[in-house]
Design a protein that fits this description.
EC number: 3.5.4.3
Cofactor: Zn(2+)
Structural class: alpha/beta
CATH class of the largest domain: Alpha Beta
GO molecular function, one term: zinc ion binding
Enzyme class: hydrolase
Number of strands: 17
CATH superfamily of the largest domain: Metal-dependent hydrolases
Shape: globular
Largest sheet: 9 strands, parallel
Number of helices: 15
Distance between the termini: 32 Å
Strand content: 15-25%
Catalytic activity: guanine + H2O + H(+) = xanthine + NH4(+)
CATH topology of the largest domain: TIM Barrel
Radius of gyration: 22 Å
Oligomer: single chain
């Protein structure tokens, strides 16, 4: 796919997650994206005078190069592994409640409004635009229980070019009389129809060596809201549906709040645990996304690890609804896949940057509690439990970690040959007009070469803790510009 028309070449500072303990920061990196929107190759450390020679060696002649300015860098796009599109209008309200009352008084009344399709369309157009411009290139969306409104959500996501999983909630009990599915049969019928609608949106990409392994941008996801809202026969039918398609992702909630955990145990006496409920119905597997996991018992952690399911850590929401703090460090030490979720409107921000900041605070609170607790067990020097999360871990959870949770690790999450170019062009320059970032000012003295990597490290950290949508200059999904600050200005 070489040639002038088909390729995009980026040259400049690139930060690429490697693991929970390291990332690469290359101040002068050359990255090529082919016509299908996939990465052809990445070359670290190309001096300006080597540029043409390097391109020519790769078979690229007379090609336009997008040169990043000082104070700009590329990172993989953020992956939001858990959010509720219809709850965005409630953002920033209801923080006085805990989970079950919050659902009753704040959330269900808002979600029930999505039976009105005009309201649904107007709301979802705004929601998806905001999510993309916040830097989220892949998003796991819960819709409502309404089939037609959830089709609209999928259509809007597809139109705007975001990568996403869109699910219609299954909920046929323990829900308000005006916001509940009439039966498990009706729930399954609508679920099959939403799957078929979303599958028909994306025709498979043209078969070529680069794109054959890639899945469509918008995909369906089975969404039993949580165990409490589903009868045994509904969960059983969803398990049967899941068994018929091993590629179909599953998303639900687990152990967010202690009252919810207790009530779940009451409703499912036959199950060994909350995680055991999902396992009993065949809904716990390598592409299951479990949101929260704040109050898991040891045997549940082992079961989730054995099934290779992933956890979406939603610290903003867990603080806001007074749910507790998920011991994410301990889960990471066990080798469980973890990503970040905004969980709007339990969380009060659409931005994964907020989730990163609150994940950092949550880990620090765990480490403080461990130091001051009766057992005074500090974190082990080699593990993540009861220790603050380092910058590489925070970046990894927001990108590659989320990709693994979504079973998309072969496709997105890092910059590597053959992966999709889902990326953010971050701007920490003064002209981004974010007063919170002490960034790069044009006219700063030329930085010595050996200091440039250190400078890039500092830009990354400042962006993660002080950045917002003003610093997200461009958002790319599958090589295509789909949002960001300069997209609108």
């Amino acid at each position: 796919m070489h040639g002038t028309s088909s390729a995009s070449i980026y040259y400049g500072a690139i930060v690429n997650p490697i693991s929970l303990t390291s990332y690469s920061a290359s101040p002068r990196c050359l990255l090529a994206v082919n016509a299908a929107g996939n990465i052809d190759w990445v070359v670290d450390d190309v001096e300006p005078h080597e540029l043409q020679e390097t391109l020519a060696a790769k078979g690229y002649v007379d090609v336009d190069v997008v040169a990043l300015k000082d104070g700009e860098f590329l990172i993989p796009g953020f992956i939001d592994t858990h959010t509720h599109a219809p709850q965005v209008p409630n953002m920033g309200t209801g923080g006085q409640y805990q989970l079950l009352d919050w659902l009753k008084y704040v959330t269900f009344p808002m979600e029930s409004k999505f039976s009105n399709l005009e309201f649904a369309r107007k709301t979802y157009e705004s929601v998806v635009r905001r999510v993309i411009d916040s830097g989220t290139t892949t998003c796991c969306y819960y819709g409502t229980l309404h089939l037609e409104a959830t089709k609209i959500l999928a259509d809007v996501v597809y139109k705007y070019g975001q990568r996403a999983f869109v699910g219609k909630c299954n909920m046929n009990r323990e829900s308000p009389p005006d916001y509940i599915e009439p039966s498990s049969d009706a729930s399954i019928t609508d679920t099959l129809e939403i799957i078929s609608h979303i599958t028909s949106l994306s025709k498979p990409p043209t078969r070529s060596s680069t794109s054959s392994a890639h899945e469509p941008l918008v995909q369906p996801v089975l969404t039993p809201r949580f165990a409490i809202s589903c009868t045994d026969d509904l969960l059983s039918a969803l398990g049967t549906l899941a068994a018929s398609n091993s590629n179909l992702r599953i998303q639900t909630h687990i152990s967010e709040n202690t009252s919810e955990v207790a009530y779940t145990r009451e409703l499912f006496p036959a199950a060994t645990s909350y995680a055991g409920v999902y396992d009993m119905f065949g809904l716990l597997r390598n592409n299951t996304i479990l949101a929260h996991a704040v109050h898991l018992a040891e045997d549940e952690v082992d079961l989730i690890k054995a099934r290779d399911a992933g956890i979406s850590h939603c610290p903003t929401s867990n603080f806001n609804l007074s749910s507790g703090i998920a011991p994410v460090g301990a889960y990471l030490d066990k080798g469980i896949k973890i990503g970040l979720g905004t969980d709007v409107s339990g969380g009060f921000s659409l931005s994964i940057l907020s989730a990163i900041q609150h994940a950092s605070v949550a880990a620090k609170v765990c480490s403080i509690q461990a130091r001051t607790g009766s057992s005074a067990e500090t974190g082990s020097p080699t593990g993540f439990a009861n220790n603050p999360l380092p910058i590489p871990a925070l970046l990894y959870l927001a990108t590659a970690g989320g990709a693994a949770v979504c079973a998309l690790e072969k496709q997105v999450g890092t910059f590597a040959e053959g992966k999709a170019f889902d990326a953010l062009l971050v701007n920490v320059r003064k002209d981004a007009s974010n007063p919170g970032i002490w960034g790069f000012n044009h006219g700063d003295a030329e930085v010595a070469q050996e200091d440039q990597k250190e400078l890039l490290d500092s830009w990354l950290e400042r962006f993660l803790f002080c950045g917002d949508d003003r610093n997200i200059e461009r958002v790319y999904v599958q090589g295509k510009l789909v949002g960001g600050h300069s997209f609108h200005h």
